[in-house]
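Most newcomers find our protein records easier to grasp once they have seen one. Nothing more is needed to start thinking about how sequence determines fold. Here is such a record, shown just as it appears in the course material:
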Amino acid sequence: MRSATSLAMLLASVAACREVPSNLKSFYNAHKNSSCANPISIEYSSGQGDADTVYCQDDASGAVFLKDTSKGYADVDIDCDGAGIGTGDCGDDPSGQSMTAFKDLVQEYSNGAVDDLNTHIHNFVVLGNDNSADEGDGGKSFDPTKDADIQPLSVVAVVCGDKLVYGVWGDVNGGKVTGEASLSLAKQCFPDEELSGDSGHTDHDVLYLAFPGEDAIAKDANWEAETAEEFEESLAAIGDELVKKVAAGKAKSRVMRATL
C-alpha cells in the first residue's frame, strides 16, 4: 500500500504534468491574437489598462473566457480572500477580505467541514464584476450566472504556462478589475515565479474557460483536501468532460448579442 506521503507526491506529479488537449490548444491558439467575436460584457480592466478586457463567449460550447481587446487573454492577480487571508505568501496582500462570495455554498457542499475557500489550497478563479460605486465606477456589471449560466463553484479550465490546471469559480470582483485567481492556482500555473498577494503574473497569456450548466458544478470536489494538488485532481473528472466540448478553431459570431 502507498503511504499518504507517496500518494500526495503522485497526485502532485499528475497535476503538474497535465497536458493541454489538442482541441483546447487549438482553441487557445486560434483566439489568442484576434479580437473577441462575441463579447457579452462591457470592457473591464486588467489592472494594467482601464478598459482592455471583455467576457467573451464561445458559440459552440457556451463557455465564457476573459479576452484582451487586442491580443492575448488575461493575467493573474492573486486573490487572498477567504480562509487563507493574511497568511503565508498572502501576508503582503493589501486588499484581502475575510470571506469569498460563495462561502455558504462551500459549507453546504462540504457538509460543514470547510468554512470557506482557502487560497493556499483551493484553486479558484474570480469571475464577474459588480462594478460597485465604491470599488468600480458604478456602471454596468457582469453576472456570470445571469448573463451566461455559469454556476457558482463550477469547474473552470485554466490554460497557463503550457499546461492545463483546473479550478472553480470561487469569488466575484466588486470593481472593474479582472484576472484574479487563488494563490494555489497561480503557483501551479507558474511555479518558478515569486507569486504572492502583492505580486502576480503580468503577461496576458492565461485562458480562464468557464462552462455553463449544472453539470459543471463541483459539488463533490475534495473540499477537505490538505494540498492544492489534491483539490485540483478532484476536479479533473468534471473538467476533462467539459474540455471535450470545446471545438478547435475560432468561434463564430453569435446572431444574438447581449446588449452592452
